């Protein structure tokens, strides 16, 4: 018999609904797993900033009581979930891994948190991230570095590194992250998980601490496609408090998992297979494409010619939006303000922001402020927005003839902690395959398609047209049904 923490989310929900196990037992098993694998400074995974044991037990007890009363439980009732620490949780610290918010307790829940609570999921904790979600390794966290459960000398990816590491270390079967330029898919790739960045507007951003508001989207991590589909069904849907969230009906994503992809047209963009792609990643992705073909998909080469400009344009748009979004952290309304007497409010702002923000965040605020300044707006920000339109048009052109696009998620497997700290360009290049989907607002999914010679997971990325999540899930599930990568577990 496997341990409770080894079960998938669907297995847990079924066992709770049938009364084989109580939600409380499941919660306790995961809280013990966290205790055993996470906090140790020298060897732990360190995925969690805050463990919410009391919140978890209370939520689990509510599920057990509902079951005793004979109520019909939702499909994920009683399933533990970890939350990236940039999702607001009422009365529970929400730090964004920043000193500037270290003491902040939001007075309200994010829309996705409300939905998880309503569906009876059990929040076990808040997970580490690169400060304000700016980074690709979780090394920019203002608090501590998270380790990759597959090899603890490696990064888990970022910025949702804690959410990925939590699921890969079996301390939660599900988690939520946010993805502005790849922050769900890149850590999903590095940790061997399924990660989904939904279509911009599919999931409410209400209560997600804003980074790049035109790019940010919340999405699930899971160890298999079915679990990810179930969690996406819970969090998707319109919300009047986020005016960019589209009030379309939410499909039953699990119903899309038919295994039948015969005749689906899948494009392979040549621009994603160029220089910098690791040979083992290439081989695994090509093998996966062969499997999709074997399942009856019609695969053909396509071109997305603006791909080369996506990274540069992103590093104008995202910092520009960040510089505006982060203006609110001034020592007056939120969190941290340094001790001491100040001659005036400007001096106080300066001290708060100098001491409260880490180096990466400061750099982005400066770049963004520069790009938006009167003299440079046209040269940088307006130009980047035009590039963004070209990127979106590339995808539209391909999706006129294809149902989905397949690429590597990241050109390499997880790198060593500290390895790229002095090379910001190399760090940023790890997002080269994921950023275009954010720039175009389209949905994208990463799933495991193999391991390199060092036992590190390799990710396959699927991209689809806006609101085409069902197709991506269908393809990913069909692939998963004939492979067993997703059943491997990191040994801790
Ligand atoms: N790594 C990218 C960045 O630092 C993307 C981050 C994200 O998606 N939040 O901007």
Please provide the count of β strands: 11
- Strand order, sheet with most strands: 1-3-2-4-6-5-10-11-9-7-8
Give the tally of structural domains: 1
Radius of gyration equals 21 Å
- The CATH architecture assignment turns out to be Alpha-Beta Complex
Please give the share of residues in helix.
Answer: 25-40%
Tell me the span between the first and last alpha carbons.
Answer: 19 Å
What is the CATH class? Answer: Alpha Beta
Give the overall form. globular
Q: What's the helix-strand series? A: HHEHEHEHEHEEHEHEHHHHEHHEEH
Mean pLDDT: 97
The main sheet comes to:
11 strands, mixed
Given as residue ranges, the uncertain stretches (5+ residues, pLDDT < 50) are: none
The helix-and-strand class reads alpha/beta
Number of contiguous helices:
15
Description:
The chain is 37% helix and 12% strand. The chain is α/β, with parallel strands linked by helices and 492 residues long. It has a single domain (4-264, 403-487), classed as Amidase signature (AS) enzymes, CATH 3.90.1300.10. Helix 2 (23-37) runs antiparallel to helix 3 (53-68). It is globular. It binds glutamine. Residues 133-136, 159, 179-183, 211, 318, 431 line the site of glutamine.
């Amino acid at each position: 018999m496997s341990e409770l923490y080894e079960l998938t989310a669907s297995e847990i929900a079924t066992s709770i609904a049938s009364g084989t196990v109580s939600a409380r037992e499941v919660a306790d098993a995961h809280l013990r797993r966290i205790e055993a694998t996470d906090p140790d400074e020298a060897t732990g995974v360190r995925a969690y900033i805050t463990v919410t044991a009391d919140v978890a037990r209370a939520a689990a007890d509510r599920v057990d009581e509902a079951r005793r009363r004979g109520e019909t439980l939702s499909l994920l009732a009683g399933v533990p979930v970890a939350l990236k620490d940039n999702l607001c949780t009422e009365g529970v610290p929400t730090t964004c891994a920043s000193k500037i918010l270290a003491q902040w307790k939001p007075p309200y829940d994010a829309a996705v948190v409300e939905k998880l609570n309503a569906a009876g999921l059990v929040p076990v904790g808040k997970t580490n991230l690169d400060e304000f979600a700016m980074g690709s390794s979780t090394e920019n966290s203002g608090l501590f570095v998270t380790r990759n459960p597959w090899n603890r000398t490696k990064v888990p990816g970022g910025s949702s590194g804690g959410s990925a590491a939590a699921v890969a270390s079996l301390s939660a079967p599900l988690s939520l992250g946010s993805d502005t330029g790849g922050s769900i898919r890149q850590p999903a790739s590095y940790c061997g998980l399924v990660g989904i960045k939904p279509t911009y507007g599919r999931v409410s951003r209400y209560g997600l601490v804003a980074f790049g508001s035109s790019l940010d989207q919340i999405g699930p991590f899971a160890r298999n496609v079915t679990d990810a589909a179930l969690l996406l069904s819970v969090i998707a849907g319109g919300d009047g408090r986020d005016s960019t969230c589209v009030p379309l009906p939410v499909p039953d994503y699990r119903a899309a998992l038919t295994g039948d992809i015969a005749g689906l047209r899948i494009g392979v963009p040549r621009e994603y297979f160029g220089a910098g792609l690791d040979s083992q990643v290439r081989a695994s992705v090509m093998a996966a494409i062969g499997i999709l073909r074997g399942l009856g998909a019609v695969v053909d080469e396509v071109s997305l010619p603006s791909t080369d400009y996506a990274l540069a344009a992103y590093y104008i748009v995202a910092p520009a939006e960040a510089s505006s979004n982060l203006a609110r952290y001034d020592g007056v309304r939120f969190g941290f303000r340094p001790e001491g007497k100040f001659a005036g409010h400007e001096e106080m702002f300066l001290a708060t922001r100098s001491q409260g923000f880490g180096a990466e965040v400061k750099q982005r605020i400066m770049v963004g402020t520069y790009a938006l300044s009167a003299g440079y707006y046209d040269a940088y920000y307006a130009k980047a927005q035009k590039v963004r339109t070209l990127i979106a048009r590339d995808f539209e052109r391909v999706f006129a003839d294809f149902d989905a696009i397949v690429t590597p998620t990241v050109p390499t497997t997880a790198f060593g902690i500290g390895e790229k700290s002095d090379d910001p360009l190399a760090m940023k290049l790890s997002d080269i395959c994921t950023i275009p989907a954010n720039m175009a607002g389209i949905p994208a999914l990463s799933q495991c398609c193999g391991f390199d010679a060092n036992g590190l997971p390799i990710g396959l990325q699927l991209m689809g047209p806006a609101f085409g999540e069902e197709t991506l899930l269908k393809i990913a599930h069909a692939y998963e049904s004939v492979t067993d990568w997703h059943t491997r577990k990191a040994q801790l």
